[in-house]
Design goal:
The chain is of the alpha+beta class. 37% of the residues lie in helices and 24% in strands. A 6-stranded mixed beta sheet has the order 1-2-6-5-4-3.
């Protein structure tokens, strides 16, 4: 950030419910936090000839979107406005104070947030995620047995070594190998510790 004053600490991407140019200005000037959201109350239409086809990476691959960008002033605060023109002529307006992002990335982030919204919607709908959020601590029941993953992994390795030794000891006479049973047992004891 010291090298480039336009580089934000991070960028918040959200729906228009938190729309407030005054808040956006405060977040940028005080904390260097950028925002990316839909613009509220858009009445005007931009010229369709101004829009250009842009390749946008989305979750399922690349797609073409007709996009155009202009500088706008909202409640005395200058922001970037990017609009998407659909095949039906509808214009979706996105605003941001992030000066680093490309037009394609702005579209990608704004339209890609649906994946996250759907994820949380299904978490709330199917798993009552919104019901389990709380600010408390519970004691863990000491009688509950918990699997120690590291112990299980070591036990698995020991089992693999024992199987390998068993196969070797069963074939040692076929290959002319003379392994003493005591050596094998010492190895097994050493690995089992």
């Amino acid at each position: 950030m010291a090298e480039n004053p336009d580089y934000p600490l991070f960028t918040l991407v959200f729906d228009r419910e938190a729309y407030s140019p005054v808040l956006f200005k405060k977040l940028w000037e005080k904390y260097h936090i950028a925002v990316l959201t839909y613009r509220k109350g858009v009445k005007d239409q931009w010229e369709e000839a101004d829009f250009e086809e842009v390749d946008v990476d989305v979750r399922l691959g690349k797609t073409q979107m007709k996009l155009h960008e202009k500088e706008v002033t909202l409640e005395g605060y200058s922001m970037r406005e990017v609009r998407r023109l659909t095949s039906g002529g509808h214009q979706t307006s996105i605003i941001t104070n992030n000066k680093i992002l490309t037009v394609a990335l702005i579209a990608c982030y704004m339209f890609g947030r649906w994946v996250q919204e759907n994820f949380f919607r299904y978490l709330c709908q199917d798993y009552a995620f919104d019901k389990i959020i709380q600010y408390s601590k519970d004691e863990i029941d000491q009688s509950v047995m918990v699997v120690n993953r590291e112990y299980s992994n070591i036990q698995y390795e020991i089992k693999q070594c024992r199987e390998k030794l068993y196969r070797i000891s069963n074939t040692k006479y076929h290959w002319g190998i003379c392994l003493k049973t005591s050596d094998i047992q010492k190895f097994i004891r050493r690995v089992s510790i």
